[in-house]
Amino acid sequence: MKKRQRKVRLIRAAIQLVFFIFYPALFSTAFAGVKSVFQAIAAHQQITWNSFLDITGLLLLVTILFGRHFCGYACAFGSLGDAMYELTVFIRQKVFHKKGRHGYPEKAVRILQKVKYILLAFLLLSILTGWYASLQGMSPWDVFSMLTARKLPNVSYKIGIILLVLILIGMCTQERFFCQFLCPMGAVFAMMPILPSALFNRNREKCPSKCGLCRKRCPAHLEIDGDTPLSGECICCHACQVTCPRKNIQIGPKIKNQTNEKKN
After folding, report:
1. DSSP result, the chain
2. Which of 138, 192, 204, 225 fits a 20 to 30 Å CA distance from 163?
3. Model's pTM, two decimal places?
4. What are the boundaries of each domain within the chain?
């Protein structure tokens, strides 16, 4: 099982590195598409298609068809979060001799996951009211985009720089801290209707008694069932799938109950 976990981690890390190097601004470009729609509404103008909406539309379509694999594999900010968290895990194990993975209690994760929806609503409302312009320099993802483009943000971005540093600290304390709790585009993705064929499913009857490894390993503490109301929070990191000792988790239609079929 460890060999399988290592293989999946390496493949995922390689894909993340490619997107981080060549397409680091995809997630901010996608949100720029959402922003352009609300700016047109605020200005009482006709919504016109633009290059930002090309990216937004493509990523929304990918999410509907395949789940939030963009979040799990292609988002540069998410990849940065993974790197920060894994570095912290390594330091804890090698320096402080603490085993296992750290993070917040499930109840706290559930509450904090709602913050990104509040943040999304706040940003969209600020656009509609014309207040968004006064937020310039406060965006941590704008600062991140500048840094990945090899541009140093000037003093007008000091609040954005401070917020980015605080987010980086948060990334060290909880796996996918920004993606789960603060990403406004993540909130949009989480609200998308995802096709059942793109969700993780398992056959509970094949699960070992009192196992729960998939839930413990999931950074969002999700139950691995396609009909869960929290399925939108799944970032498709595949951690549950590679952790399952019986390979009992798959993406696709719900696994049929083989036991009941044999009885019938």
Report:
1. -HHHHHHHHHHHHHHHHHHHHH-TTHHHHHHHHHHHHHHHHHTT------HHHHHHHHHHHHHHHH-SHIIIII-HHHHHHHHHHHHHHHHHHHTS---S-----HHHHHHHTTHHHHHHHHHHHHHHTT-GGGGTT--HHHHHHHHHTT----GGGHHHHHHHHHHHHHHHHSTTHHHHHT-HHHHHHHTS---GGGSEEE-GGGSPTT--HHHHH-TT-----TT-TTGGG-----HHHHH-TT--EEESSPPP-HHHHHH-
2. 192
3. 0.90
4. 2-199
